[in-house]
Amino acid sequence: MNCRECTEHLYEYLDRELTPAVKEEIRQHLADCPPCGEHFDFERLFLDFLRARCRAHGAPPELKRKILHDLFGE
Amino acid sequence: MSPPRPAETPQPADSVLAEAEKRASFEREALTHLDSLYRVALRLTGNAAEADDLVQETMLKAYRAWHQFEKGSNAKGWLLTILRHAFINEYRRRIRHPETVDLDAIEPFSVFADVQDEDPQGTFFDRIVDDEVLRAIDQLPEQFRETVVLSDVEGLSYDEIARILEVPVGTVKSRLFRARRMLQGKLYNYAVGMGYIKGTPK
What we know:
The structure holds two protein chains of two kinds.
Chain A: H1 3-8, H2 10-14, H3 20-32, H4 34-54, H5 61-72
Chain B: H1 13-29, H2 34-45, H3 48-64, H4 75-95, H5 111-115, H6 130-138, H7 142-153, H8 158-165, H9 169-194
């Protein structure tokens, strides 16, 4: 696998959407190619950052109360 | 309130039981996804009041259709599909205009190429606060925004996203790629503007 092919699978790899065989090829390439390894690390950190920033927020408690009232008259 | 009159309005025991079971299973399998539905609704509508209404409507529709839900299957995906349809049918036209830009013509640039010498770990991202990230997501074209939200905020698989959005998995992949790059670009520009990192805005 070369750098271009490896980068094409970047997000599929990070999202764990690849077959074990392709995943292994990429893992091998990343071990042998420090620039690709750095790039993948950067993208992984970005996705972690994105998740951490967005998942903290949930529904307001008032909304749950309204829904329970709508559904069950409480 | 008048006293109950069991002799005149008898309630068959199994119907009461069935209703109680329906409620229990709905609370257990559907209401537990309230936070997810709200986050997605907020990003789709762009404001809290509309998000509230959209989630309320989704839950009402879902409860009415609960007998159609295949027990044990993916309730989160099922609920998000209902939410998205409700949004498209009733909210989108009112709140936001569908995009007219050609999304395939957007050439995403790689932030990594710009920062790899100075900050290859992307530590400048850590200085960007939640609200700024959410604002950047809200500025994405709708098709990109909903894909990123389902993937990065809600953690759904490509297959689940494809089913909710009713597009092929390949489309999910390409939208996700462009959306994430576009988001990186926006956040990078913001970080440059704030002086968190040296660079040239794109």
